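Much of our argument rests on the idea that a fold can be written as discrete symbols. This step matters because it turns folding into a mapping between discrete strings. The record that follows shows the chain in one-letter code together with its fold in token form.
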Amino acid sequence: MYWGLLHLKVMENIRNFSIIAHIDHGKSTLADRLIQFTGVCDERNFQDQILDNMDIERERGITIKSNAISLPYRAHDGKDYTLNLIDTPGHVDFSYEVSRSLASCEGVLLLVDAAQGVQAQTLANLYLAMEHNLEIIPIINKIDLPSADVDRVLEQIESELGLDPDTHLKCSAKEGIGIEEILEAIVNRIPAPKGDAENPLAALIFDAHYDSFRGTIIHCRVFDGTLKSGDIIKFMFNNTTYKVEEVGHFLLNRVKREKLCAGEVGYIIAGVKTVADVRTGDTITLQNNPTSQPLPGFKEIKPVVFASIYPIASDDYQDLADSLEKYKLNDASFVYQKDSSAALGQGFRCGFLGLLHLDIVQERLEREYDLSIILSVPSVRYRFTLKDNSVVYVDNPTHYPDPAEIIKGEEPYIRSSMMLPERYLGAVMKLCVEKRGVNSILNYTGPGRVELSYEMPLAEVIYDFYDRFKSVTQGYGSFDYDIIDYRESTLVLMDILVNGEKVDALSQIVHRERARARALLACERLKEEIPRQMFKIAIQGAISSEIIARSTISAFRKDVTAKCYGGDITRKRKLLEKQKAGKKRMKMIGSVSIPQSAFLAVLKSDTD
């Protein structure tokens, strides 16, 4: 009984919170200032974006891998508090990880840029926080900027977010203005965690990372019960058991503790071999005293974008295989399997959470493992219903079913949410319609600002939509999306033929309306990249046996009539016919080698 009362007193001094914001609104900078203010890191060891461990995160200014840190703080009331900051990734591709991080908190700091105002992901993250019934503290950041317009942002907080503008705080994370007020608001406005240390253990996994010496480090929030070294734990989804080697809290480094109790955030080391064995959102309990039911909200993460990765030099295949195996240790959402192509050789078919995830994996493989790779055209998972009423999912064009057997084809649709200045509305609507967008919803959120929503096929969005959207809005627009359902579409398999030979690496599943435009683009780019031969080379785009696009690489031609100064025309004609027959014979036996640059040119979008 005494221990229960003592722990209740300890729990009163714990605050679990997260910072949510649109990309580049200052989330990592605010986290830096909170860490500095609470004295966790001294000036000598400090660096910007201290919670972002990867170079790519620092360069791009985005958080890819979430982190957690415990901040000790003595408030104005004289009490010592532990503030657990659970950092979250900022991009839509990682929205499930964000939702699990938020499920581990009691409150959030909602950061809004004083110059840019409310953006698409500000809204998306707000809705996530509301789903978990969290205390929301709106903070206007970057008030030191000359272009800051605090009054306009306050109006947006009230009209677009539906929050009370009187509860807002102002700060400049870069200059360190208003940091103490934020810490006091966390203590006074975010509720203490609830839970009972005497109940059976129930802990939520919100992240994990791989340590080459200790195995998988599990990041968790304990809701009920107590966990200590030596306990036998069970993952409720995998139904696997492990013996706990160490538990502790996150400061800048891991700090070992005797136990983790209800309300606390910390780490567990239990000899788990790979990150793939740990599912984000799973519930940890004790094997001998399990909780009756898992914590709500768990779902399996499924990839939505697929592409094949091949080494540029076939000798590097084994290096690529080893690198993917190592990379997978730290990224449980990345999936891959062996694949092969007649044109590009052995490779791997990979699944990603979205385009940013794909981009990150490609860049990390090239940078961290020193690989030169080719990425095939990204595709989505299509659904086909066949004549025998079976349903097949296809993410690779080589597995496209027999067209005669298909009753209907379906593709995934998204609901997009875009925030943009009114002056770009016409250009963005034209772009959305071009990308087969339907069911538009238009909402004027304030003077000169528009919220626009369209339902669009995911395949159109992953091709080149985001780059073109940023281009037509001159960088002022923000874009966010949710996958909604599958819808029937007229889908065809488009093949590229070079000299009559099918190039399997360039095949794509496309909507019939888009097939000719994509085929023309591929033919023109191949024409520019493939070197000329002694015979004509036909490059064709085809749907089944129907040719829909063509370009021709003209042959090198020797002037065989140069030695004929005069005489009968039949002599010249005879020489030309002889040359023509020779070229025809050469074309039949000649093979065209396609350089790697040609594949790279075709795989780029038409805006590059």
